[in-house]
Amino acid sequence: MKNKLVVFLLAGVALLVLPLVAQYAGNFWVRIIDFALLYVLLAMGLNIVVGFAGLLDLGYIAFYAVGAYVFGLLASPHLAETFPAIKALFPGGLHTPIWVAIPLGAAIAGLAGALLGAPTLKLRGDYLAIVTLGFGEIIRVFLNNLDAPVNITNGPKGLLQIDSLRIPLVGIDLGKTGSLFGFPLSSVTKYYYLFLLIVVVSVIICYRLERSRIGRAWMAIREDEVAAKAMGINTRNLKLLAFGMGATFGGVSGVLFATFQGFVSPESFALQESVMVVAMVVLGGIGHIPGVILGAILLAGLPEVLRWISGELDLQMLTGGRLDAAILRQLLIALAMIAIMLARPRGLWPSPEHGKAAPAPAA
Amino acid sequence: MSTGAAMANVVLEVKGASKRFGGVQALSDVGITIHAGQVYGLIGPNGAGKTTFFNVITGLYTPDSGSFVLGGKPYKPSAVHEVAKAGIARTFQNIRLFPEMTALENVMVGRHVRSGSGVVGAILRTKGFVAEELGIAKMAQELLDYVGIGKYSDYKARTLSYGDQRRLEVARALATEPKLIALDEPAAGMNATEKVVLRELIDRIRKDGRTILLIEHDVKLVMGLCDRVTVLDYGKQIAEGSPYDVQRDQKVIEAYLGVGHKAH
User: Cα distance from B254 to chain A (closest Cα, Å)?
Assistant: First the structure.
């Protein structure tokens, strides 16, 4: 018990100091960590759908997109410039505060999750995966093409000049460099602390959901849907709840992404991203929260670390232009994924076998 | 006994249940009445329609016709989870547990339908939520003890022996506080020793005042345990009565052994 507390405290201090150290190495490192945190949030959300309820969702990134576009539309000049009516209503342009945007993004994404989940209720396994894949693409295609006849999403050009995160009451602007006791805090570092806070809250939510009546019902559906029904579990409602809850995390992550990046376009929400998030969950340890976090950090961080290494070595020069850093990086990541899945099929950090094997019954 | 008391005593009453699959009349006009505290047997040769009837009353198949009354209240067997909520808990012929969950968790899932905390309670860990969870865990452990596998509460369901998995399924069904517990061929695949233990368990459940519907191949087990028996053949009810009478029924003997055999 005491040991656990010490570990928690040490981990807490390490997490608080991490960006300050990384800041010295360059803000670009802090930025990578920030993105890793966003991916942790995404992976945690997908883990509810895939890990807890056992519903393979290949279109999860759509909810990230929904969150990002909710904030993008409500906090950028785009809508005011396109629609005179909105311009008249908000002469200063739309600047939705973040504490409105996060719940709103979460709610809309959650609703989208439940809506897109509804037609898939009778599907399982491979079939479910294919349908969710289609839905994920549909959302992206919509975002790409909703610039005509009425320009809502600004199409492939995306939304620009999205507000950075500001809390005017206390004079905090996460988009600007600040200082703490004379210690410089870059913009990305300030975002880090916000993201960390939200990730910690999300981890607690997921952990508590897992150990609850609802979590058990999800797992029962994952293990055997027919038996779950026979136990009186309303599988339809609980599956929708899983889709909705999972999408909520995606929505929050999307809002944070939009404000952090200041720019969103449909390109960020391609199928590749959905696949990456699924890979994070599976590679880390499906259904096991610490494993999922590890998977997300590894798959989000590793490509950037490799990029840096190949840059430092100047690979292209070394090999006379035959080896391109970008290609080598992808190759290494793919190889790492194959190696991990072969060596540890249940993931890097799977849920413990808390049930020991039962002893052979006495004959 | 007045009619009112007799009615109150009836746990399940099915009348005129029929089900057709394409050209096969799997069930035609089957009716049973199960009284409280009874062990009611449903037997018949392979393909007689036992499992179809079972699936109809538990809501897995939608019947073409029939009236269904459980504990004095009509119910429509159209959704499995609604039937479970109404008060019929079942086990499966080919055991269906939640293999990667512990024995205790399996039984706790059975409490789902008799508990009510939702997402908000779970996230905020409200007093009501914590009290309910503790109650569920306590009751689940008691049920595991009751069926005799209390020491395995922490083991994953898939790691239990075959006989213990059967018992776990029974404990999980009991957790839903059913008015009627329906066992689908519980002795299937069991050796003689396991059958004795199973029989003792069913006997004990009955003595504790529960009502049981038993589908079984093992005629010996059925005859020893049941108060009343219905025999199905080709989807039709060919006999109904006490095990003693049914065993001597000419139609039953013909169905099992073929025409030409006589009761003796």
Answer: 35
* Dihedral over Cα of A217, A220, A224, A227: its sign: negative
Would an 8 Å CB–CB cutoff place B192 in contact with chain A?
Answer: no
pLDDT at B3: 46
CA distance B123 to chain A (A): 6
Percent of chain B whose pLDDT exceeds 70: 95
Residues of A at the B interface, defined by Cβ within 8 angstroms:
205, 208-209, 212-217, 219-220, 223-224, 226-235, 241, 245, 353-358, 360-361
Check: CB of residue A135 under 8 Å from CB of residue A257: no
Q: Residue B159 is nearest to which of A219, A226, A355, comparing CB atoms? A: A355
The ipTM is 0.91
In A, minimum Cα distance to B88 occurs at A230
What single letter denotes the amino acid at residue A355? G
pTM (2 decimals)? 0.91
- Find where tokens 């989807």 sit: B235
- The fourth-level CATH superfamily of domain B3-87+178-257 is P-loop containing nucleotide triphosphate hydrolases (3.40.50.300)
Hey, what are B64's tokens? 């073409």
Question: What is the percent of chain A where pLDDT is above 90?
Answer: 59
What is the sign of the dihedral through the CA atoms of A20, A25, A27 and A33? negative
Query: Hey, what long-range contacts does B223-228 have (CB within 8 A, 24 or more apart)?
Result: B223/B247, B224/B199, B225/B39, B225/B41, B225/B199, B226/B39, B226/B40, B226/B41, B227/B38, B227/B39, B227/B40, B228/B34, B228/B38, B228/B40, B228/B41
- Domain locations along chain B: 3-87+178-257, 97-165
DSSP assignment of A4-36 = HHHHHHHHHHHHHHHHHHHHHH-HHHHHHHHHH
